[in-house]
């Protein structure tokens, strides 16, 4: 239902992009022409996902080790992406924080 190049020229960051729903969304965006930046806590997992996407779809997918619970690490990864690839045009905020926090916090 989507044109093959719908996301051509778009640069999308996907947190939790190495497995599950994040990887499924990445695969569809790759098919539609997006440049992908997959983030996850385990570099080997996101690296393997990127290699699969690059091979299966011809997309450009880049792996970034990142724990979203560390704000400074988030800034570092975003700064690196912008410096090396340009500004992001999309975000899929898929990673689970998995930490206990009071509702008011």
List the helices and strands and how they pair.
Blueprint: E1 11-15, H1 20-31, E2 35-40, H2 43-57, E3 61-65, H3 71-85, E4 90-93
Parallel strand pairs: 1-2, 1-4, 2-3
Helix pairs in contact: 1-2
List descriptors.
globular; four-stranded parallel sheet; 105 residues; 3 helices; Rossmann fold; alpha/beta
The radius of gyration over CA amounts to: 14 Å
Text of the CATH class = Alpha Beta
Percentage of helical residues?
Answer: 40-55%
Work out the helix count. 3
> Superfamily at the CATH H level?
NAD(P)-binding Rossmann-like Domain
Largest sheet, described in full? 4 strands, parallel
Estimate nothing, just give the exact number of structural domains: 1
Flag low-confidence runs: none
CATH topology: Rossmann fold
Provide the succession of SSEs.
EHEHEHE
The percentage of residues in β strands lies in 15-25%
The computed structural class is: alpha/beta
Largest beta sheet: strand ordering: 3-2-1-4
Which second-level CATH architecture applies? 3-Layer(aba) Sandwich
| End-to-end CA span | 41 Å
Mean pLDDT: 93
Number of strands: 4
């Amino acid at each position: 239902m989507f044109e093959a190049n719908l996301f051509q020229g778009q640069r999308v960051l996907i947190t939790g992009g190495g497995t599950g729903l994040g990887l499924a969304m990445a695969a569809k965006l790759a098919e539609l022409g997006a440049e992908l930046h997959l983030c996850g806590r385990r570099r080997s997992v996101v690296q393997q996902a990127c290699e699969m996407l690059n091979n299966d779809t011809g997309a450009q997918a880049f792996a970034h080790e990142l724990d979203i619970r560390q704000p400074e690490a988030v800034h570092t990864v975003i700064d690196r992406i912008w410096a090396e690839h340009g500004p992001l045009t999309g975000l899929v905020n898929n990673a689970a924080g998995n930490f206990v926090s009071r509702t008011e916090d």
